[in-house]
Amino acid sequence: MRDAVVEGLRDGTLVAPHHRTRTPGVALVGGGPGDPDLITVRGRRLLAEADVVIADRLGPRDLLAELPPHVEVIDAAKIPYGRYMAQEAINNALIEHAKQGKSVVRLKGGDPFVFGRGMEEVQALAEAGIPCTVVPGISSSISVPGAAGIPVTHRGVAHEFTVVSGHVAPDDERSLVDWPSLARLTGTLVVLMGVDKIGKIAETLIAHGRSPKTPVALVQEGTTAAQRRVDATLATVAETVRAEDVKPPAVVVIGEVVTVGPRPAP
Fold first, then answer.
1. Among this protein's residues, is 78 annotated catalytic?
2. Does the active-site annotation cover 85?
3. Average pLDDT of the chain?
């Protein structure tokens, strides 16, 4: 029992707030891809010490239910094409609560700096003179394919992998991605936030040299109980997404590594 108590205090699963030294400021915590067991030990400890938690939809939200009643939880609710909390409002909330002397955790999905706008929050806090601790998290770009049995690299198959945001289509003037260059690579391409743009992405990759037969896997709700994997090719992926009703959040993996592991059950 003693060992269990010590372990619980160490990893944050057992909270003893009156015996902890709380440091006012903000901790920017990467919560991992969704499974609450995949948050780091440090992230979980800081979460257990928090007075205020500002949480994204894609973070390990199951952990919020374990927080003591006095902890204020703010839902950032950054849902694409739905209700949202503007980034400026999130920044202001972090600053406001930290200036009140509270210990604030900004709980984000994945890693704070992988398409997470984490640096924008760090910059805003620095300008306000608020101390900030950054806790890296497990990115869905690696962990979700792995959870679905797909290695992003494999000896003799792929010696590199590229992670790209698909939140804007290749023909969108806002896109900063060099899609023709990506099409010429022979390794793995991992696309985040690209489910609704995958048709255009596939067309562009094929137009610039990728084989239409290139394997594609879409992993929806990766690492959670709702995880499912849908396989296709570049030629068929757009229709497959429609037919299988694949919805975000989903990670798209493009490349021969999709076929390396055991075939998914039908």
1. yes
2. no
3. 90
Quote the pLDDT of residue 18.
44
Catalytic residue among 56, 111, 200, 231: 56
Going along the chain, which residue ranges are E strands? 25-30, 52-55, 72-75, 103-108, 132-135, 161-165, 188-192, 215-220, 228-233, 250-254
Residue recorded with tokens 């374990």: 66
Percent of the chain with pLDDT over 70: 87
Query: Biggest alpha carbon distance in the chain?
Result: 63
Q: What is the DSSP letter of 223?
A: T
- In the predicted model, what is the mean pLDDT of residues 141-166? 97
| Residue of 193, 197, 200, 231 marked catalytic | 193
Q: Give the Cα separation of 177 and 159 in Å (integer).
A: 21
Three-state SS annotation for 153-190 = CECCCECCEEEEECCCCCCCCCCCCCHHHHHHCCCEEE
250: nearest Cα among 199, 194, 203, 201:
194
Flag whether the pTM goes above 0.85. Answer: yes
Q: Encode pLDDT of 82-107 as tens digits.
A: 455 688 889 999 999 999 999 999 99
Of the candidates 173, 239, 179, the one whose C-alpha atom is nearest the C-alpha of residue 204 is: 179
Strand pairing class (215-220; 228-233): antiparallel
Listed in sequence order, the residues at least 6 apart from 211 whose beta carbon sits closer than 8 Å to its beta carbon are 234
What residues contact 231, with CB distance under 8 A and at least 6 apart? 215, 216, 217, 218, 240, 258, 264
**Helix, strand or coil for residue 149?**
coil
Residues contacting residue 157 through CB under 8 Å, at least 6 positions apart: 256, 257, 260
Burial bucket for residue 122 (CB in 10 Å: 0-12, 13-18, 19+): buried
The helix, strand and coil proportions of the chain, stated in percent and rounded to the nearest 5, come to: 35, 20, 45
